[in-house]
Amino acid sequence: MTSQKDLTKGNLVSTLLMFALPYIGANFLQALYGAADLIIVGKFCSSSVVSAVATGSQLLQTLIFFITGLTVSATVLIGKAFGAKEYANIIKIINTMTVCFIAAAIFLSSVIIIFDNQLLNILHTPPEAFASAKDYIFVCALGLVFIFAYNAISAVLRGLGNSVMPMYFVAVSCFMNIILDIYLVGKLHMGAEGAAIATVISQASSVAAGLIYLRKGDFVFKFKFTGIKFDLQTAKDLFKIGLPLSLQDTLIPLSFLFLFSLANAMGVAASAAYGSVIRLNAFMMLPAGSFSMALTALTAQNLGAGNMQRAVNALKLSILFAFIFGAVFFIWQQLAPYSAIAIFSTEDAVLHEGARYLRSFSFDYLIVPFVFCLNGFFFGCGRTAFAAANSIFSAFAVRIPLAFILCTFIPSATLFHLGIAPPCASIVTSFCALSYLIYLSKKNILVSQSNS
To answer: What is the DSSP track for 173-241?
Structure first.
């Protein structure tokens, strides 16, 4: 198997599927990795510890999302350079991204450790879950550097058309996390702290595997652990594409953290149920997210090669494939929502609350294929500013206000009412994105960008 792959040639359907399927595999394992903490904690601990792990992991994920915009920008820049056969620029991009990631990891770790009480209070963390949540985020904050390093390695490989190895790396991490969770949480009864320790150690193992592969793989560049240099212009390019994504990837989860705070205010059962659904959604949303991520790299390479029509065709196929998955998940949650929540908890109250939320929220599974795939296409074109502004607008103009209104002014509001807001926001996002795509097509902007 080659270390990189040209995505500008060959049958489009097979190229897209063969490139996207490892994304699905990697994202499935990543979701399983995150869910393992909650599943195992749910089997061995009380609902207050489940709430603590759910709240702490959601908070950390929100902060981590700030840096993922830079990983996408690295994938785009590396993909364009690879498609244009400008191999000398690839190592420059990798070096600069490494420096940026180290700085970001140190900064965000410090923020979490210093302001942990304030952050958990903002989320209305239930009092009985507060101490465990604080232990969880402290340990995970110390290991943020490994989470960032894995995302950086994956961004490099995906920009080079290699989506298989990131899946193998996360498989190593997922397997180790499950084993450590069972031992630390189940056998040693370490609760939320044990789940956090398992997370950090397993992430470190995936980073070690990734670094070894970069050092020994057959690439168009030579990776070295020493002599890393920072290039200011490359950093500007990374931030030009990545900052809108970082802003989006930070603010959008914040909007869901606001929803989490509304769920927390409904009690421990609702909090644990909402946290369980978040983990479940990591699986339900992964096909759409995977095709979106694959589309970003494919679009970037074809943009660099001057073949935009191939990228447009890939967008249509990605939406179709992602929608098929979404329809299946929607039907499941409408017919048997209890079966999904039961994966994470066996408490009747948690099952009941989770089913309520899924009855309304599951409509989002039919809409996000359009949102995710259109955004993935815009990311690959480098048009991150619109995609970010569109997502942020729908989050703060629709999702948050609607959730607040439904949960505040409806007497005895439940998670069912809270679940109405996300699909409504997605409808607005997809409408604006489709309108923007039509505008670009009519003005022939995409074609001229491809030929420039």
So the answer is: HHHHHHHHHIIIIIIS--HHHHHHHHHHHHHHHHHHHHHHHHHHS--SS---SS-----HHHHHHHHHH
